[in-house]
Amino acid sequence: MKMETEKASSKKRKPPFLQRFFRWAAAAAAAFSLCIGVAGAAAWKLSPDSLTVTGESGTQLQSQWYQVISQPLGMERQASATGNPREAQISLLGVVPVKSIPLEYSQEAPQVLVCGTPFGMKMEAEGVVVVGTADITGNGKSINPAKEAGLEIGDVIYRAGGKEVSENNELAQIFETSRGSPVTIEAERSGQEFTAVLTPVFSEIDGLYKGGLWVRDSTAGIGTLTFYDPDTGTFGGLGHGVCDVDTQELMPLGSGEILPVSISGIVKGQRGAAGELQGYFSSDMAMGEMSANTDTGVYGFLFQSPEDAQLLPIAMKQEVRAGEAQILTTIDGGAPQYYDVEIEAVNYDESQKTKNLCLRVTDPELLKKTGGIVQGLSGSPIVQEGKLVGAVTHVLVNNPEKGYGIFAETMWECAQEEEISAKAS
Q: Would you name the residues annotated as active-site residues?
């Protein structure tokens, strides 16, 4: 009887090797699914959200892991004739669908004059930017009217007491004439408009009514001009926005002008300390107007076309390749010169537009004179295979030989938006 029971129970148990096989298979399937999920999420983030296709660009991306799958070539030609956008699919390893993106077709790539010349910027802010708050001593005690009103560093004040404000002294005058009565402040924070009520306090030290605010109404600096569009008169430069030195927020542009600059010296970059080009405004006569200060650069209109600038096509982002390239820039009082660099990596992350290109300076002369990328080179055109592919934007402080760049296509699209906006206004 005992032997029969053991025999019956042995028939019900699965062999140990089958149990191990099924467990292994389940674990492998789970791990594979997790890997595909992680890789798919990365491909979603790092792949472009749209592509513009020209007669030469194609759709092949600089990636071994994901690619664009579009419709047959005949349909691409038909779409390019009409200029209508059409969707394509980003796929992981050419198999796993990740996302759909629109394709826009253009017969030819836009052409621009490639500059590489230094320029100066004088910007008047739209409103005034709060860069600090302070206690005011009055009636025997210290009060911070700005903090009590809820104002913070980085806020942009447009109106106070019903009056538009564009200069520091205008705001100070409004506080003084209030004689301590509440003043309604109209401002913006992180793109959201709001109102606050500030009650100025009589300062025993200055004998004036004050709001306890430190504000900035203008800024100036130098950068490098990237390109000029001879068809529209628009320019793009810098490759990143002009930010307030205290708040690190984008300066709201009220008005601005472009001035000629002469380079007077170089502070060589070292590990842990970024170098810089030193220069001065060589004339008070403006050479152009600024119309936009954006995350991708500064844009506007030049009064005259740059002299001796070369006309080059703009590369679409999918044309840019890791490998040898050159930057066109000016590091002394002479004309712009080409210097060798290496594009070490290309990514298409839309949330990191100013860091889509990873660069390394390889030119011995540039390394000797500047140590690599320095402040003031921002906006220097990056040229590869006879096309404008990008502009220098950042330097790695711990390694000045390396830095980042932005796609030229991104800057050109922003310049076109500003040109259209200017015509509409």
A: 240, 363, 378
